[in-house]
Give the backbone structure.
Amino acid sequence: MNKKQEIVVRVRIGFLAICLVGAAILARAFYIQSYQGNYYLSLADSLTISKIKLPAERGNIYANDGRLLATTLPIFDLGFDIKASLRNDKLFRAHVDSLALLFSNKFKDKSAAEYKKELWRLHRSKKSYVVLRKGIPYDLQNEMQHWPLLRNGQNKSGFVFDKHKKRLKPFGWLAERTIGYYKENSKEKVGVGLEKKFDTILTGIPGNTLAQKISGGLRIPLESPENVRPQPGKDVHTSIDIDFQDVAEDALNRALLHHGAEHGCVVLMECKTGKIRVIANLGLTKDSIYKEIKNYALAEAEAPGSTFKIATVAALLEDGYANNQTKVDLGNGTAIFYGLPVRDHDVPKTQIIDLKRAIEISSNVAIAELADKFYNTAQGKQKLFQHLESFGFTQPIDIEIEGAAKPILRNYKKWQATSVPFLAHGYEMQVTPLHILSFYNAIANNGIMVKPSLIEKITAYNQTVDSFTTVVLNKKLLSAKTIVELRQMLEGVVENGTATNLKTDYLRVAGKTGTAKIAQGKEGYKKAVYQASFCGYFPAENPLYSMIVVINSPSQNGYYGNKVAGTIFKEVADKVYSKSLQMQKPVQQLIAQKEVPIIKKGNSDEIKNIYAAWGKKIQTSDQEWTQVSRNQTVLQPTDFNVKESVMPEVVGMGLRDVLYLLENMGLKVNIVGQGMVKSQSIKAGEPIVKGTQVVIELS
């Protein structure tokens, strides 16, 4: 075989081998396609398709009128993919001016030129991705996605909206600590308030879906019978009245500022149901502003001071040891009990008074003496302790949020001789504001003690799935006779005692002031740190609401309960009264009950019309001006003569009348204050010259 033939044979052998290999490959491919295709397809899918978790929509928290207190909303961050932007440089150049102008007009934090410079800097930078703006709400994102460049999408313009969810409180810091928060991090779950307590209800049940991974790391959801839809969380409806809460927190904030206090709280509760309508807690932060940083009403136990005297008196009345007329000797306002002094605020004007008056003036000596007399024996201590235990002062408040402080009240077996007289007026023990309020609420509710509650109901898809009805803790905490006498005392505190500043002619309030000296750790009572409080209910004759206000550590402008806490109580009570038709008497009934007011001086015709509206007819002369006086119950109008160039007596006139009169006489009138005329700088009867200035002070 020559060399040429040898080469041809080799080529043919090589070709044949290639054909055989190709045939084998085709045969193998056919075999895989026909017999193993499904296996390899499922293997490929297993690498690109997987189940992903779908979080459930968290439920909402509502106020009692359906307004949102906490909800979850979509929030967007605007990102910039610089590489995608560079691939479309022409598009960026064409629209960057318009986009910069829109950014400037919408956010108003930079000029259009500054935004344009910033966008160009990012467009040319070496970074791959930056976040331009965080926390864009849904409605704004919906508007922005139609802006130049942003409407072109990430692949063309580089701009992309990154969606995530955020828990929002539409009313900001109102009841913030009670609403609370709940979140999970890598180490633990943390939270407070309703968000934590009802987390399992609010969270819902997560779902899942199959999704396939495609280029760019994106996942596309796939339809599959294995997919499970998430079930949204249920909604929690609270008893909080957001309007009352707003008034309470505003009044509390102003009072804390005015008195330089450390913290304070306000709680308003419905007497019959125990539903809490207001729970406001404000404390001083490191930034010297007041925020809801702790639920003081529930979580802080302190010596209550004089508000606790009512519990001691309730025990005395129940055991038949005393009544409203029981006489007590105050001496000089100081009494020594086993070597320790108990003092009243003032030296008494009357040495011997009855128990009702002792409560009205908040006598420490009187209550300590009675308690020491009847309860400072082994049997007496046990009896007093059992009363306090039944009043709820030994167990934490049971309510729908966590963190309730346990009261500190030693077992009677550990009491010393001084314990009874000091316990009697609110020392040697610590309770929370809610303990005191619950007890006072029982007095207002005719002896029925109900459980405080923050929740009205739980709903799902607008259907009620659970209702929180009133829970009665004690149907008869105190006898009817005791309730009557206690209520007479509490009404007397406002009518004739330490809280007369709360007295009004339209809303009768009953309650008790408290001013307690607070122990400071190891230093004890060496440092003068006080707690001012007022606890009561209204209307006194038919109680609908009970309320407690506590201010801790006031450092300026007084520290007594009636002024510091009482003013907040009155402001909130007035707001509740203004919204409650149930409390307000018909106008005609009010007119019938009220004495017709005196309009001292004014225009004759207008005075006649005003009195006619009150159902009173008075006869005036033809003079332009009239003054009215009262002779017992009879209104007596007389002429009010005005002489030219002589200063008239204008005290008692209204602003409009005095301006009309004096300016027509040619005087320049300078007004100070508001109301009726209290004084005038030019005395009545003095000669006047046109153009003279007269100062009129109103009050």
In short: The chain has 23 helices and 30 strands. The chain has four domains: 3-49, 61-233, 243-579, 592-698. Residues 46 and 195 are 39 Å apart (CA to CA). The domain at 243-579 is CATH 3.40.710.10 (Beta-lactamase).
